[in-house]
Amino acid sequence: MQTERPDTLLYSRVAAHYRRAIQSGVLPPGQRLPSLRSLVRQHGVSLSTVLQACRTLEDEGLLEARPRSGYFVQRPRRARLQPVSEPDPGAAALVPDPTAFAGIHDRVSDFVTKCERHPVHTNLALAFGAPEAYPQEALKTAALRALRRHPEVLVSPVPPQGDPGFRAVLARRALAGGMHLTADDILVTHGCTEAINLALRAVSRPGDVIAVESPTYFGLLQVIESLGLRALEIPTSPSRGLSVEALELAFQTHGQIAAVVVVPNFQNPLGCVMPDEEKARLVALCEAHQVPLVEDDIYGALSDSDQPLACCKAWDRSGNVIHCGSFHKTLAPGMRVGWMTGGRWQDRIRMLKHAQSRPNDALAQITIGEFMAGHAFDRHLVRLRRQLKAQRERTAEAVAARFPSGTRLNMPGGGMLLWVEMPEGCSSRRVFEAALREGIRVAPGLLFSNSERFDRFLRVSCGYPCSAQIDAALARLGEIVASV
Ligand SMILES: Cc1ncc(COP(=O)(O)O)c(C=O)c1O
Asked: How many alpha carbons fall within 13 Å on the CB side of residue 207?
């Protein structure tokens, strides 16, 4: 047997060769690798180099060594993870006590302040993709074309609802989600955040109660708090979304609910999609109780499947659903372009938008409109969805391999977020702080509710391409979860 030290370059080359074959599926789970002797012959390297390559892949969770049988492609460890716990269907909705209410604002400020204090090398708390995942060059070309075709754009006023050409493109694309809109039904906004702000201002007054999913996106809790409203947290299933039964119970017991806000497709942080029959039930229930339904569909276009996901608005027959969207996740995180259709509150929303911020800049709208008019947007989405799926799977595998036993996870069918339930006794606050001290940022479960009940959860982002650095950060995060 040769005993010289393995050549670093050679063994990484051999490892890279088999890593690619495993990740592309050419070598499927359970497949036996050729014997060490034949690998030596095949690659013309020493036995120790081959062994080092196999051990590297074993450490990465891609191969497993079976005594006296050789190396085999590891079966996905994710299969070993249990899905995240379902909420108790009879659990009461949670409304903060207005006298003892420490709002989400304090938690988010605390999170932001701590993040600012520590330099970060790996950010697993983002809810959008890496800049390279978006069509930078094509958008630049579209912007230059927009300026050439509309040289007056920077000095002329924008129509109050937004650029008409852009709104026409949005109306055509809304058909895929089952919505029948005209350009006049659409109002362009500064991202989804402004759309939700306007929707809630149109349908409620300070002091009112707004029903939301629990857990929910902390930005929504911030909007609610900033408008002087109170969030009523409705139990939400990590696999089927908002519990319509629990909402119905809340309508009966709380009486005064001014609006419901829901993220039906790839909810943040759960990643779940409401089945169509639940979406239809939700729309019918809100209509029967005359409670406006605000729908945030910011992630809907990021499904792994080619089949477009329906929006709640598709079942709306009376204008009771306000639908909000944005290009922040799907096309251009650097452009604050969102949109909404306000149902029977459209006129009031237009007035509020005028009073609040006036119309959005035209250049960004015309640029996105130009880009979306052809097939470029669809081609970009196909690429982005494929990339996010691969990143989600690799992140889930790393969690399965590196987090302690008792960790639970649901695998969403789209989007860029994983909601991880840590074993009994873990605290997201402690994990967040310990990870931050080592330069790793992750979103603690505490941010997604006004209560403490998600302290055992972390939201892990899969927006950035997998890399050795992200793998190492996830491995370290697993050790931190095991130790705190
Ligand atoms: C569910 C949800 N809604 C809205 C937003 C914010 O959207 P925008 O950046 O378009 O204002 C986010 C961002 O993370 C989100 O996750």
From this structure: 0
* Residue extents of the structural domains in the chain: 8-75, 80-132+382-483, 134-377
Amino acid at 468: A
Using a 6 Å cutoff on CB, does residue 134 contact ligand 1? Answer: no
Identify the weakest region by mean pLDDT among 1-5, 282-286, 309-313, 324-328: 1-5
Pick the CATH number of 8-75 from 1.10.10.10, 1.10.730.10, 1.10.1740.10, 3.30.750.24: 1.10.10.10
DSSP 425: T
C-alpha 219 – ligand 1 centre gap (Å): 7
CA distance 306 to 287: 31
If one counts every other C-beta atom within 10 angstroms of the C-beta of residue 141, the result is 15
127 lines ligand 1 (CB under 6 A): yes
Sole residue written with tokens 């009879």: 90
State residue 108's pLDDT score.
86
Q: Write the CATH number of the domain with boundaries 80-132+382-483.
A: 3.90.1150.10
Cα end-to-end distance, the chain, whole Å: 45
Angle between helices 36-43 and 47-59 (to 10 degrees): 110
Residue 251 phi, psi dihedral angles, 5° rounding = -60, -40
Residue 2: pLDDT band with limits 50, 70, 90? very low
Q: How far apart are CA 157 and CA 288, in angstroms?
A: 41
> Ligand 1 within 6 A of 191 CB?
yes
Alpha-carbon distance of 311 to 297, in angstroms, equals 7
Q: What percent of the chain has pLDDT over 90?
A: 79
Task: Note the CATH number of domain 134-377.
Answer: 3.40.640.10
Testing ligand 1's pocket by substitution, the residue of 108, 222, 298 carrying the most ligand atoms inside 8 A of its CB is: 298
Q: What is the pLDDT of residue 100?
A: 40
Query: How does pLDDT run across 300-329, given as a tens digit for each residue?
Result: 999 999 899 999 999 999 999 999 999 999
Query: Is the CB–ligand 1 distance for residue 193 below 6 Å?
Result: yes
**268-278 tens-digit pLDDT:** 999 999 999 99
Q: Is 463 in the pocket of ligand 1 (CB under 6 A)?
A: no
- What's the farthest any 2 CA atoms get from each other in the chain? 82
Task: Indicate if the pLDDT at residue 150 is higher than 60.
Answer: yes
Whole-Å CA distances, 399 to 66, 366, 402: 23, 42, 5
**What is the sign of the dihedral through the CA atoms of 447, 450, 451 and 454?**
negative
Nearby residues of 398 by Cβ (< 8 Å), 6 or more positions away: 61, 470, 471, 474, 475, 478
| Calpha distance 355→361 (Å, rounded) | 16
